[in-house]
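Lab notes, practical 5.
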Amino acid sequence: MLVKEVTQLIEEIAPLSLQEDYDNAGLITGDLNDEIKSVLLTTDITEEVVDEAIEDNHNLIISHHPLSIKPLKNLIQENYIKRSLVKAIKYDINIYSAHTNLDVVLNGVSGKMAEKLDLSNRRVLQPTLNPSVGFGVIGELEEERDSYDFLAQLKEVFHCKMLRHTYVNKPRIKRVALCGGSGAFLTQAAINAGADIFISGDFKYHDFFTAENKIIIADIGHYESEQFTKEIFYEIVTKKLSTFAVRFSKINTNPINYL
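Output from the prediction step:
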């Protein structure tokens, strides 16, 4: 099985043409015609993840976040990005990323969050090209939930060490909007859609004011909201291909720790 046969499966779901202009999705290093030995799935690429691939003989790493979005002027090994890239090249490891192109499809990053919360009637929160492409997802719980009970469930499902939220101005929650990664820009869209709560990551201090007591904002963290992206890759790759091993990275790549 060739690298390009796997990447084609991913791009059928999340075409590279959907990525944002600033992004760097696709094959970062390697050869699309390489024969795959085994695949390692990760949210982020760090030096430890590349070391894991070397040690366990994986020659294809698939990640959500690209190793680098900014262009590199040289490969002097002065930071983890360049060291990781040099190691990958040295050991013939292919690196492929599906980033913003996976963010904007209905069954992508936000869709996986909605699945974890068993939301029904899912649709794109802020469509762009068509109703199934755009930012965020909105859906409904099967039954209304007490707001504090739902926040506790949210903390458990996404393995949050902590959860930041606005004033709980709604006693019960039914309609849920969410966005993987940094979704503060979608707060008004969530309000307009009649959501009771908006779940995302990376809210700044002043972003919380934009709720204006019309919605509950819950910041679960950037990594926490995107950690299940690996499962999307696994489902795509193993559904049609079973001729090689596919493994989840054992490395916790979340750079944030909590005291």
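Observations recorded by the TA: The chain has two domains: 3-101+228-248, 104-226. The first strand starts at residue 26 and ends at 29.
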